[in-house]
């Protein structure tokens, strides 16, 4: 029982209008990698945002009074705060140099997931518009090319409540259900499993992050091979939504 | 750039007094696996607790008034609630059928991490007494046997705020610093990295969980090979503490 992770090494710097699916196809050719059934490709969200041209010029941002007020509280640049507010449904918590929001997509994370890294100065990349849709388009293109059943997961690096440090986290997916519901499965003693819901897509994202973070030049795409549960979780309709806890069920959002 | 995960296949059911380090040594021999420098062994916490005989008999639990009161709120068995309280420093939140506490170790998690699974009926396993110490003892034994530098991480499966589903999480470690502080590292454009603190031990635990969860009989120990950052993070003194956010710095614990 083994699992293999490969970092794709030939991914060029991405610019607006680039076709990520094609870029992956070219990389796989160049590295002589054949996709297999059950392969899972994990893609750093910043790659998708850049291909979408989903980039905010800080100079163009008009700062609202609310942004100025919150910028005071958290000691962030008012323009950054304004972009964070524009990308959010609501503010969950404000802390020193961060604002935890619920993003337009429904993710609860710091600074609406806006990434000031890996873009030229004066620019910031928000999360992709629709990570599930991007994942689906890339999956369908590669499945058609290779005639294999695969999954695509779009990943971000996010902090957590209660624990220090960020980890790779799934923000979009296609081809696999992100949540493994194991109700009915039993343990060594035939008892119902303690853990009946596993956020498999988040575990895959965290695993991929181990490679993405390492190389100096960064590894934006990781291939995971040998995840047998792919067959159980295969699902071409469901996106990331099963991993998002509705506000009314979250004891930390009262 | 690749990462390999192996599930150790010959781990027997563990009972009180068993020597986990010796059990791992025997498994590696049987599977003909030679440990290499930089290998990381991830061990499910329930294995450590069982070897410690750290098991609570529900019949022996004397229920306090506070436990009865909280059991009312969360609709859990008062005896389970009592054990949860006894394993905790404080209650963080109470929800339907769960109590989020800070455990004696300082972890914020559901039900003080008490595991009702994989033990015979009427018994429950709390977290290991001192996961860092257990990890250190196992590491030192195996490093001495194999004359290699390795890391041991004790893992649990824990839920999260804001997201559905549990993921593999590190609760003890030895041989590696669990937190990768990257302040000073730069991105593709020479800018300071957005993410300066990565909870590497949690990412390793989540990756291992992908294998631990799969087999029907369960894979309690996973070997991760090829994690180059091991050399950067090598540390024989630090335990899991760098991943625990002090209460006063957590906006979700006001």
Secondary structure layout plus pairing:
The structure is a homodimer of 254-residue chains.
Chain A: E1 2-7, H1 20-30, E2 40-44, H2 45-52, E3 56-57, H3 65-74, H4 78-86, E4 88-95, E5 98-103, E6 108-110, E7 123-124, H5 131-146, E8 151-158, E9 167-176, E10 180-181, E11 197-198, H6 200-212, E12 221-225, H7 230-233, E13 234-235
Parallel strand pairs in A: 2-8
Antiparallel strand pairs in A: 1-12, 2-12, 3-7, 4-5, 5-6, 8-9, 9-13, 10-11
Helix pairs in contact in A: 1-5, 3-4
Pathway (chains A, B): Cofactor biosynthesis; coenzyme F420 biosynthesis
Keywords (chains A, B): GTP-binding, Ligase, Magnesium, Manganese, Metal-binding, Nucleotide-binding, Potassium
Cofactor (chains A, B): Mg(2+); Mn(2+); K(+)
In short:
Chains A, B: InterPro entries: F420-0_g-glutamyl_ligase, F420-0_gamma-glut_ligase-dom, F420_ligase_CofE_arc. Chain A is an alpha+beta fold.
């Amino acid at each position: 029982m083994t699992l293999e992770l490969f970092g794709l090494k030939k991914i060029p710097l991405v610019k607006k209008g680039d076709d990520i699916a094609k870029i992956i196809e070219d990389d796989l050719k160049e590295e002589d990698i054949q996709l297999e059934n059950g392969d899972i490709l994990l893609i750093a969200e910043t790659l998708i945002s850049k291909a979408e041209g989903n980039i905010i010029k800080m100079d163009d941002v008009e700062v609202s009074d609310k942004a100025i007020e919150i910028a005071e509280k958290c000691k962030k640049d008012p323009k950054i705060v304004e972009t964070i507010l524009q990308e959010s449904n609501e503010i969950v918590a404000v802390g020193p140099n961060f604002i935890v929001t619920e993003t337009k997509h429904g993710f609860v994370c710091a600074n609406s997931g806006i990434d000031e890294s890996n873009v030229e100065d004066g620019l910031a990349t928000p999360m992709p518009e629709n990570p599930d849709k991007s994942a689906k388009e890339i999956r369908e293109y590669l499945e058609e090319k290779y005639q294999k059943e695969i999954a695509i997961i779009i990943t971000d690096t996010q902090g957590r409540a209660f624990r220090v440090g960020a980890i790779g986290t799934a923000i979009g997916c296609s081809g696999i259900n992100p949540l493994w519901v194991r109700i009915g499965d039993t343990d060594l003693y035939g008892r119902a499993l303690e853990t009946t819901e596993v956020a498999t897509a988040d575990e895959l994202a965290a695993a991929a992050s181990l490679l993405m973070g390492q190389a100096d030049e960064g590894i934006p795409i990781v291939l995971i091979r040998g995840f047998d549960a792919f067959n159980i979780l295969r699902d071409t309709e469901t996106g990331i939504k099963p991993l998002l806890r509705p506000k009314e069920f979250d004891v930390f959002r009262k």
